[in-house]
């Protein structure tokens, strides 16, 4: 029988592989560089090519957003478990400087966030955490800021089974 850690490492590798081959990411040049076995951290890279370049030769804004879209939701779903509903609710992106080459984004969640979500939803209420991620180029220059709002609710007891 496989241990919990072995199953988690396998699941993280499988998800990383799936996301790398996911057609929208494959087409946009998005690569998941790292996904921790505990689903607490992810690092994503997107190169610049003819397939994601805009009219002025920089990163297409839609590709910049798509590279960060699902990660907080996925990390929270894996850490909160099947007793919770987690959805993306809203997002905004602030383009700060042009992406003229590869760009990177990192996502992290910690115990404090998970504890706050559990506390806010313990009675079945919805909770709308606001999470931020920054997109940088290879030299560390800020390219864009993304604000994400997620919808989190504990499932009613009858649906948890």
Structure description:
By secondary structure, the chain is an alpha+beta fold. The protein has helices at residues 4-21, 23-28, 61-68, 71-80, 111-121, 157-160; strands at residues 30-35, 41-46, 84-95, 103-108, 126-127, 130-137, 142-154. Strands 1, 2, 3, 4, 5, 6 and 7 form a seven-stranded antiparallel beta sheet that branches. The longest helix is centred in the N-terminal third of the chain and has 18 residues, at 4-21. The protein is globular. The two termini are 24 Å apart.
| Average residue-wise pLDDT | 92
- The count of β-strands is 7
Beta-strand residue percentage = 25-35%
Helix fraction by DSSP (H/I, runs of at least 4): 25-40%
Order of helices and strands: HHEEHHEEHEEEH
Number of domain modules: 1
Q: What's the quick description here?
A:
This protein is an alpha+beta fold and 161 residues long. The protein has helices at residues 4-21, 23-28, 61-68, 71-80, 111-121, 157-160; strands spanning 30-35, 41-46, 84-95, 103-108, 126-127, 130-137, 142-154.
List the helices and strands and how they pair.
Blueprint: H1 4-21, H2 23-28, E1 30-35, E2 41-46, H3 61-68, H4 71-80, E3 84-95, E4 103-108, H5 111-121, E5 126-127, E6 130-137, E7 142-154, H6 157-160
Antiparallel strand pairs: 1-2, 2-4, 3-7, 4-6, 5-7, 6-7
Provide tags for this entry.
seven-stranded antiparallel β-sheet, HotDog_dom_sf, 161 residues, Thiol Ester Dehydrase, Chain A
């Amino acid at each position: 029988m496989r241990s919990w850690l072995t199953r988690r490492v396998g699941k993280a590798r499988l998800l990383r592989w799936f996301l790398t081959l996911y057609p929208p990411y494959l087409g946009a040049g998005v690569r998941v560089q790292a996904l921790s076995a505990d689903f607490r951290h992810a690092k994503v890279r997107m190169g610049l090519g003819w397939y994601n370049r805009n009219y002025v030769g920089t990163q297409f804004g839609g590709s910049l957003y798509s590279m960060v879209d699902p990660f907080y939701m996925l990390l929270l779903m894996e850490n909160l478990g099947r007793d919770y509903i987690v959805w993306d609710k809203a997002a905004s992106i602030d383009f700060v400087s042009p992406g003229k080459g590869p760009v990177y984004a990192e996502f992290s969640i910690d115990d404090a966030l998970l504890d706050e979500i559990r506390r806010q939803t313990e009675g079945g209420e919805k909770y709308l955490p606001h999470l931020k991620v920054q997109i940088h180029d290879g030299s560390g220059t800020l390219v864009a800021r993304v604000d994400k709002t997620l919808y989190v609710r504990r499932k009613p007891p009858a649906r948890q089974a």
